[in-house]
Amino acid sequence: MSQTAEITSDDKTRADSSLVGDRGRTSIADVVVAKIAGIATREIDGVHDLGGSAERVVGKVREVLPGTATSTAQGISVEVGELEAIVEVAIVADYGVALHQLAAAIRRNVISAIEQMTGLQVTEVNVTVHDINFGDDDDDAADESPRVR
Which segments carry the region annotation Disordered (predicted)? Predict the structure, then answer.
C-alpha cells in the first residue's frame, strides 16, 4: 500500500508562514502572546486597567508583595495555534470614553502588535468592558459595598 502526499491549502499556508521554515519551526507560548496583547491594550488612551474585579484584586496583592511583579498579561487570555491566535481582553474603561471606539482601537493595536512581533494571524480580539472608572473614585472604594450601621 503506497502513500501519496497531497498538498492541501492548509499545508500551503503552513509552508508560506514565517513560523515554519526549511530548517525548523518556531513555536510561541501563549504567555508571550498574552503579554504582547496586554502591553498593546495598555497603550490605548481610555483603558484604566485590565481584568475583571477578581483579577484586579489579585493584581493589587501582587503589587504589595516583595519580589513579585505586576503581570502584563492580567485581564488577557489567548488561544494560540500553529499559525493563528484568538485574544480575549477584559478592561476597565475611563468614564466618558466611547466604548465602541475604545474596543476598536484596542482591537487594532493588539492585532498589529501580535502580527508584527510573532507572525501569527490574529483571527479574533474580543473585548469585555467590566467596569468604568470615574477618575475621582478610589478603586478600593468602588469594590466595597455600602456598610449598614
Answer: 1-20
